[in-house]
Design goal:
The chain is an all-alpha fold and 531 residues long.
Length: 531
């Protein structure tokens, strides 16, 4: 049996190494055997150096068999795949990532949270300011696959450096747009930040899997997503405070410059921290599932075939649709919140920002509690479904109380809705990682985000037009209808938790589930072992 400490910590000295997989005594190897280089051998099988082993295509996917195109062992993994140990650096890595994700998310919503002020300053339409938010969604769609490929090819550190550098560059470009006729410059800066976002959104589940143990992975993913949500919260709170609604263009430009200088300085500091702190991967695999993933990975793997396999996974396809509906509704609400609140409470730009802050802070609490609950219970399907249904309930309550004329009621209902709506986001990442193991978390989470961006653009444009023509009530009912559809589809997702199965497997269970046939052929032919 395997004895694995759930969170052994990696130290700088040389502690006794714990083997994650021990040799099974019931399997004995022939004395003259050679291992064929194109075959990935599961570590639970003891093989002599001169045997040719060919696994059968019927092997269970969560054990030694890797899907088509992923058969060559990778040399990019930790030094010793047999050692399961978590690194002390892991929390620092996820914290730095969370911080520069926060900075990028702030820049996404900083225009939308004071939509009317920027509209008057630049002399453009409300729809033009909405596009400063929607460009984040638009650029993600065509750039996802190239960036996901770069993540697989060059690893976490390169993607982190690129994302934080672009985020810093975009922040400084915006400082060149402090005149009313320079709206195109602020568009360029925002587009650069939106490209940076492509290097950020798909990282949480990948960082959690590469750096954290089996009993920490959901919490770590929640912390990584936490930064993005915190950035949105600050983006709702700070701009209305720093940029008041005044008529004097010169004073308004001064207040906008203060906000741009602050975010530029923060983005620069975070880029420096990424350079210093961010490391590609820990010395040892943090979990059995990650160790097996390293063993099965291949630099020559077909990236396209991985995507094809994901779309053949019906459970994952359903999750892609339902995640997109939920996250798209959140993006639309965030972008249009200022417009909705101002229509019912004129002159309340600051409180509109505070309502947005309430939504996101409540969601951050929901995300953290959900992550901790998943690490303890592993009830991915049940938790996701309950949170989705409660998101719908919260949205319905918010929809029918917005026009009552009491701000405190809006704060309460928005907080309840946000607790579940934004708390759902890390659940989707982790559920996808479970359903698609051992496929790359960067690809699966990237496809979830593409769905979110597509639905986000559709919902933002559609709800914006409905609000302009018919009012906020029909606009919010529009979102309620699609959240109802998402909750219904979530009920049909089967809880095929492949990563959990891989973490529980031992050499004994692997061998017990396989029929091993050995055919001995006289030299110079080799021994063929069929699984």
């Amino acid at each position: 049996m395997v004895n694995e400490d759930p969170n052994p910590v990696e130290r700088d000295d040389n502690p006794a190494q714990e083997s994650a997989l021990q040799k099974d005594p019931s399997f004995s190897a022939a004395p003259s055997v050679s291992v064929h280089p194109s075959v990935s051998v599961h570590p639970s099988v003891s093989v002599h150096p001169n045997v040719s082993i060919q696994p059968s295509t019927s092997a269970h996917p969560s054990s030694s068999a890797q899907p088509s195109g992923l058969t060559h062992p990778s040399s990019s993994g930790p030094e010793d795949l047999g050692v399961i140990k978590v690194s002390r650096r892991r929390w620092l890595v996820v914290l730095v990532f969370s911080c520069y994700s926060m900075c990028n998310a702030f820049q996404w919503i900083q225009y939308g949270s004071i939509n009317n002020i920027f509209m008057n300053f630049y002399g453009v339409s409300t729809f033009a300011i909405d596009w400063l938010s929607m460009c984040y969604m638009l650029t993600y769609i065509p750039l996802l696959l190239p960036v996901a490929w770069l993540l697989e090819k060059f690893g976490l550190r390169t993607i982190a450096l690129t994302g934080s550098a672009l985020n810093c560059l975009g922040a400084w470009v915006k400082l060149g747009s402090l005149q009313p006729h320079l709206f195109p410059v602020t568009v360029v800066g925002q587009v650069i930040c939106s490209v940076a976002q492509v290097f950020i959104l798909g990282m949480p589940s990948r960082i959690a899997s590469v750096w954290f143990g089996a009993d920490e992975v959901s919490t770590a993913c929640s912390v990584a997503v936490f930064g993005n949500q915190l950035g949105i919260a600050i983006g709702f709170l700070v701009p209305p405070v720093l940029v008041p609604n005044i008529k004097d263009q010169e004073k308004l430009a001064y207040h906008i410059s203060i906000m741009f200088y602050i975010i530029g300085g923060v983005a620069t500091l975070l880029f420096i921290l990424v350079v210093i702190v961010f490391k590609e991967k820990p010395k040892h695999a943090p979990s059995r599932a990650q160790s097996l993933s390293y063993a099965l990975s291949s630099p020559d793997a077909s990236y396209l075939s991985s995507i094809v396999r994901l779309f053949k996974n019906l459970n994952f396809v359903l999750l892609v649709i339902t995640y997109g509906l939920n996250a798209g509704a959140f993006y639309a609400l965030s972008t249009l919140l200022n417009r909705m609140v101002i229509s019912h409470f004129p002159g309340e730009e600051v409180n509109a920002g505070r309502i947005g802050l309430t939504i996101v802070i409540a969601g951050m609490l929901g995300a953290m509690l959900s992550g901790i609950w998943l690490d303890k219970s592993k009830t991915y399907k049940e938790t996701t479904l309950v949170v989705y249904i409660m998101t719908l309930v919260g949205m319905v309550i918010y929809t029918f109380t917005l026009n009552l004329g009491h701000l405190w009621i809006v704060f309460v209902t928005a907080g309840v809705m946000g607790f579940f709506m934004t708390g759902y986001l890390p659940l989707g990442f982790e559920f996808a990682a479970e359903l698609t193991y051992p496929e790359s978390e960067g690809v699966s989470s990237g496809l979830l985000n593409v769905s979110a961006q597509v639905f986000g653009i559709i919902f933002t444009i559609s709800q914006g037009q409905i609000i302009d023509n018919y009012g906020t009530l029909p606009g919010n009912i529009f979102l309620c209808v699609f959240l109802t559809l998402g909750a219904a589809l979530t009920a049909f997702i089967r809880a095929d938790l492949r990563r959990q199965k891989a973490n529980k497997e031992t050499p004994e269970t692997i061998l017990a589930n396989k029929k091993i046939e050995v055919t001995i052929i006289p030299p110079p032919r080799a021994i063929i072992v069929a699984f």
